[in-house]
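Duplicate of #3305? Posting structure anyway:
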């Protein structure tokens, strides 16, 4: 009788140990994952023939790519396919969501100084109850100096393609506001 109970316990233990194995096999990741190129400086992504190898081609920002998760890559690298070409790219420049134009950091060296002029801040489009951020750098993910209520006065001192460098008339602090959220007085 002791021998039968021992065999039953051994079988139950083996079955119990196998459940996580079967569960993880069922939850295996997809072979292909859709992602988007997201270089925060707005430049193109280098695709290489092997990790740290020669650049084979470049892919523009916002381009949809397929990440081949069944290809073994070193940490920080992904094997991708886009526009019929494949290669290795740094994973940190890929995003699961399509970036917007304000996700890119505009190069402050490209800003053009202007004769200062006054503007008023606007509420976020489609959300009049939300305010726009006065930011430390020209990127929507950068730290907000403070939130601006609609109608607050700012003085534009330099302009970029998407952002302007402004002086907050209420606090005297300098920061950046997206051009779409200001109107000239």
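Output from current build:
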């Amino acid at each position: 009788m002791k021998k039968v109970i021992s065999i039953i316990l051994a079988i139950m233990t083996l079955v119990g140990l196998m459940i996580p194995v079967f569960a993880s096999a069922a939850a295996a990741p997809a072979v292909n994952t859709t992602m988007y190129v997201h270089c925060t400086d707005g430049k193109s992504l280098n695709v290489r023939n092997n990790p740290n190898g020669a650049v084979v081609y470049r892919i523009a920002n916002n381009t949809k790519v397929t990440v081949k998760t069944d290809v073994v890559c070193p940490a920080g690298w992904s094997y991708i396919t886009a526009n019929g070409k494949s290669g290795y790219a740094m994973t940190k420049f890929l995003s699961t969501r399509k970036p917007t134009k304000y996700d890119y950091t505009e190069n402050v060296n490209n800003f053009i100084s202007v004769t200062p002029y006054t503007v008023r801040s606007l509420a976020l489009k489609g959300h009049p109850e939300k305010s726009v951020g006065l930011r430390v750098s020209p990127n929507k993910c950068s730290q907000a100096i403070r939130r601006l209520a609609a109608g607050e006065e700012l003085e534009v001192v330099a302009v970029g393609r998407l952002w302007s460098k402004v002086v907050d008339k209420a606090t005297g602090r300098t920061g950046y506001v997206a051009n779409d959220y200001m109107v000239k007085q």
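Confirmed duplicate; merging threads. The chain has two domains: 32-99, 102-184. The domain at 102-184 is CATH 2.30.30.40 (SH3 type barrels.).
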